[in-house]
Write a structure and sequence with these properties.
Helices cover 49% and strands 14% of the residues. The protein has nine helices and seven strands, in the order E-H-E-H-E-H-E-H-E-H-H-E-H-H-H-E.
């Protein structure tokens, strides 16, 4: 199976930590060129110190001007683009739907959905012009079965799958593939924050919330960011040449939204 990514020119949003960082390191290890953006300046500085062969820029994907500047810089630095990984997203607020504030709802959709749209809109013309390339959008198992007390996040992740399938239909004739990756419960700092949100919203302990996540999964485990990165590399490599329009889960088989 040929999962060679050497020479690919890869753009990754929110690439300085978590899944984005694991993905950047996976592509760099395979010989790809990589340009990332992030809003966390400290994480960007650490990334630059550890990955001098990659570009790292500050950009909020919900800001149209920032997206245009970042993509232009990334394309100029690499001489083009072959892969876009729309990884940027936020957890959003916790709580029953009728208790949520509109501003928090809007911000969640702005980053998770509009950010994916803005990045894709800027990169797609490059891929169409060369009649090749791959886009990976980050959804979630919450985008397949819902997520109690996390309505904005679930709504955004469902939207990502619809956007993914639509773009795959639009771009297939140009040799451009579009897929969504749906992580389950990922063992990282972001999940720690999600657990805290749910504990606050439900009145249960953090330990109980964590047990609920693993109890909902057949393999009774959290997912490692490296597992997600490996899937992204696979679908962007020659091995994934006939995979498009799919929502690909890496989750240990989620049986229910929560148990």
């Amino acid at each position: 199976m040929n999962n060679d990514v050497a020479g690919l020119r890869v753009v990754i949003t929110a690439g300085a930590s978590g899944i984005g960082l694991a993905t950047a390191e996976e592509f760099l290890a395979g010989g790809a060129q990589v340009q990332i953006c992030d809003v966390d300046n400290d994480a960007l500085e650490r990334f630059r110190a550890e990955h001098g062969n990659a570009g790292a820029w500050h950009a909020d994907v919900s800001d149209e001007v920032a997206v245009d500047v970042f993509v232009s810089r990334a394309v100029d630095a690499m001489g083009g683009v072959d892969v876009l990984v729309n990884n940027a997203g936020i957890a959003g607020p916790g709580g029953r739907t009728d208790t949520l504030e509109l501003d928090a709802w809007n911000r969640t959709l702005d980053v998770n959905v509009t950010g994916t749209f803005l990045m894709s809109r800027k990169v797609i013309p490059h891929l169409v012009a060369q009649r090749s390339g791959s886009i990976v959008n980050m959804s979630s198992t919450a985008g397949l079965m819902g997520f109690p007390n996390r309505a904005p996040y679930a709504a955004a992740k469902w939207a990502i799958i619809g956007l993914t399938k639509t773009m795959a239909m639009e771009l297939g004739e140009f040799g451009v593939r579009v897929n969504a990756v749906c992580p389950g419960s990922v063992d990282n700092e972001r999940m720690d924050r999600v657990v805290e949100l749910e504990a606050d919203a439900s009145g249960r302990s953090a330990a109980e919330i964590r047990r609920g996540f693993t109890n909902a999964v057949s393999l009774q485990t959290f997912v490692d960011p490296a597992d997600i990165a490996a899937m992204i590399r696979f679908v962007c490599s020659p091995a994934g040449a006939k995979i498009s329009g799919q929502a690909l889960t890496v989750d240990g088989h989620t049986e229910s939204a929560r148990s």
